User: Fold this.
Amino acid sequence: MWLSQSDYSHAIMPFPLDEKSMKKLIGSNLLWSGLLILLSACAGAASTPTHPPTATLSPTRALSATPSSPPTRTTVPSATPSPEPTLIPRPTLADEGLVDFSILHINDFHGQVLFHETEFGVPPEGGDRFPGDISATGAARLAFFVKSYREKVGAESMLLLDAGDLIQASPDANDSQGQVVLDVINQIGFQAGMAGNHEFFFGESRFLEIAEQQKAGGFQFLAANISARKPNSSRCQPNLILPPYLIFDLGKDPGPKVRVAVIGLANQSYPEWGFDNESLCISSSPLAALKEYYPKLKDQEFADIIVVLSHQGYDEDMALAKAATQQNTPVDLIIGGHSHTYLDQPGLVGATYIVQVGEYGKRVGIFDLTFNRATKKLDVAWKTEDIKTSTPEDPQTVQFLQTALPAAQP
Ligand SMILES: [Zn+2]
Assistant:
C-alpha cells in the first residue's frame, strides 16, 4: 500500500499558510515553524508570486570537484546550457561482463538529524497526536545502515542519493540554515541530490551560497531546470544554477563498469518553491529538461543507465515515466520525493521503475542492479529498509552531531 499525495494533503489541510507567513516562521525559529512550513508547502497553500526579475545573482556554473568517497564522479562540462560547452566525447566502456551495483536513496528528510519520537512533544492528555506529528530515527542510525551496506557491496559499486527537501524544517536544521544537515549528509557519504523546494526556504541567496560551497566537492545538489533569471528579463530562460547531471562509473575494481547518469528534475507546476524574490525560476518542464539532456547523456556521455532524481511527487513521476517512454526518451529509474509516499513495490511504466521512500530518513530504498555489458540488459531488484530505534548508531555520526549540536543528544 502507498499513500498518495492527495491522502497526505488531506491530513494537513487545517494549516494553510501563505508564503510570507512561512518565511516569517523560518526567521522566528519557533518550534512550530518546521511543521507549519512543511505542511503548508505540501498542502499547496502558497500562491505564485509575481515579482519583477532582478539581475543581481551570480549563480554557479561548473562543477570541478571530486567526491568525498568512491565511486569515481566525473566532471560535468558546464551547468550552463548557453553558450553550449564543447563536450569531448567520453570513451565508451568495454562491452563485456556483468556489473553488480547498488543505488540507495532517501527523500524528504527535512533536516531530521536527531532521533525524536515526535518533534512536537507529547500531545495534551487524552488528546490525539497533532496532525503531521513528526518522528525521526535520526542521522546516526541512517548512517549506520548505509555505511554497513556500502561495506557489504563495496564503495565503488554503490551510489547514495537524495530526492529533495533535505535541509529545512527541523529546529536544528533551521538554526544553521541547513548547514548542519549538509555537513552530516557529507559525513555519511551522500553523493548527489535533487534540490527540492524546501532547499530554497532560507532564501535564494542562501541557496546560491550552498551551491558555491558545493564546488569544493562532496554531496552535490543537481537540477536541470532551476535557473537564475537573466538581467532585465521577465522570462525564465535556461540559465542553470546547478549541474544538471553527474556521471558515475560503478563496478568493482578491476572489472567491468556501468556508466550511470543521474539527472535532477524539478516540478514546474506547483507554486511552493519558496523563491523569495523571483530571481530564480523553473525554466522548463521536467519532460522538456529530460529531452534536452537525453541525447547528450546517451551519445556524448555514453551513459548505460539513466536515473532521474525527481522532486515533484509520485503521481507526477508516473506520468513523467509514461511521457518519456512514449517520446523515445525512456529512463531506467525515477527516484522521487515531495509527496512523502511510502511504497511496498516500485511503480513500473514500460521499463522504468518509479520509487519513493516516505520521509524523515525513516526508510531507505535499495536498488540492487546487474548490468550486462554485452546485451545492455539491466536486471532490477528493489527493496526497502526501515531505520528503527533498534538500528545501531554510527559512532562517527554520533560524535559529529555531539560536536555540531552540543545541546542535543543524537
Ligand atoms: Zn517538496
In short: DSSP finds ten helices and 15 strands in the chain. Residues 1-85, 126-131 have pLDDT under 50 and may be disordered. The pocket of zinc ion is lined by residues 164-165, 196-198, 311, 338 (CB under 6 Å).
